[in-house]
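Open question from group meeting: does this chain pack into something compact, or does most of it stay loose? Before anyone orders reagents, we agreed to write out a predicted structure and look at it together. Recording both the input and the output here so the notebook holds the full record.
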Amino acid sequence: MKKLISLLLVLALFAVAGSALAEDDLLAQIRSRGYITIATEGNWSPWTYHDENDRLVGLDIEIGTLIAEAIGVEARFQETNWDSILAGVDTGRFDLACNGVGYTEERAKKYTFSTPYVYTHKVLVVSADNEDIKTVEDLAGKTSANSASSTYAALAEEYGATVTYVDTLGETMAMLEQGRVDATINAQVSVEDYLKEHPEAKIKVVQVLPGDPVVYPVKKDASTETLIAAINEALEAARQDGRLAEISVRYFGLDLTQAD
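Structure tokens returned:
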């Protein structure tokens, strides 16, 4: 009888320990609930946007769905503005952000990042009649439009520009054409996509800048260790079988999955 009681106590302790472990493991929570919550803007083509049928599509939507399928759950995308994306990951409102987030050492202090899934170049864009700005060195004393807390805004400020914060690429380009700002630094693929959609836009690219590794951020603590490992495993499998390159070519017209 005593042996039976002892055995039951041991099993109960294991159950409690297992329950506590699951509570501290975000991947286990995601699998238990059956879905992963993914933050995205929904207005930044070709990364994340709505098509002619108002469906949420884009490179990050496809890869986010791919990750969810690899984990064995449903992908639930929540659209929000850029400022709320990383903050929401940090507070646990979102499990993951799929929104073309560039890697920076400063961000890496606060978030755990996946391995890069694409590498993008940046471009300096001005209005078509602007002859004063040729390179980022000319931004000192000028104005730029960018999303708040973006790597593009930080770079513009680094070169001496005063940044006006905006929510969308369309708003950025409108401000540029209207002469309300002098320039913008943005993702090359996004600017090229905008020009395809708006060939009449009176803007021009004056400089192409080195690219950034683009990553997926999760909350930086012990609870996300298994989640980020599963995300990296899914990305590597998609890289090896060609799916990642295929998605990149579909949305960018180029395979940007390699650093070189």
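Observations to bring back to the group:
The CA atoms of residues 46 and 98 lie 12 Å apart.
The first helix runs from residue 2 to 23.
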